[in-house]
Amino acid sequence: xxxxxQPSEVTAVEGAIVQINCTYQTSGFYGLSWYQxxxxxxxxxxxxNGLDGLEETGRFSSFLSRSDSYGYLLLQELQxxxxxxxxxxxxxxxxxxxxxxxxxxxxxx
Amino acid sequence: xxxxxxxxRYLVKRxxxxxxxxxxxxxxHENMFWYRQDPGLGLRLIYFSYDxxxxxxxxxxxxxxxSREKKERFSLILESASTNQTSMYLCAxxxxxxxxxxxxxxxxxxT
Lengths: 109, 111
What we know:
The complex is a heterodimer.
Chain A: E1 3-5, E2 9-13, E3 18-25, E4 32-37, E5 44-49, E6 53-57, E7 60-65, E8 70-75, E9 84-92, E10 95-99, E11 103-108
Parallel strand pairs in A: 2-11
Antiparallel strand pairs in A: 1-3, 3-8, 4-5, 4-9, 6-7, 7-8, 9-10, 9-11
Chain B: E1 4-6, E2 10-13, E3 19-25, E4 31-38, E5 42-49, E6 56-57, E7 64-70, E8 73-78, E9 87-94, E10 101-102, E11 106-110
Parallel strand pairs in B: 2-11
Antiparallel strand pairs in B: 1-3, 3-8, 4-5, 4-9, 5-6, 7-8, 9-10, 9-11
């Protein structure tokens, strides 16, 4: 089986840094993905960690520790447009991707 | 840019009706997926396909079937719609499983 845990809601101030954590339990592990979804929109792919360590893409970074079954998404210099839901996802067994329930990020002025 | 399109943004059907949701992608991706999304439950995989005429059950296939006659098209079928199938349905495609491209979604209401 597989399960992913991430906080349901996070609030942060514009310009600040926020970290969204994800812990997982899967049978077999191939990497951790992150997706962003704005209200009324479709999920869009943000990042993938196939190996331990930090991957940086502009203001967004993603980290993976396979020994701890843990990863996080780091958003820097928060902007109002970053208000969205963020999902971590892992492949598990025959299922190509299993998604967490999502973290709703609210950026406030 | 990858484009995934879905046949309808909003759909209202009656209980017992047969419902077809169509999805088309234009990037020659082998892999296609159907999810439903409900508040507090995240995205749950219904069916997926790695090739034409091939299908695999996801986590919640009951009450659904799929068809993939052409590489670019993946259809989700609700044989007899029920009210508990009211949901947002999202189609996705990918070349690699971890990077999926999603369509805009179909919000289906079954009354």
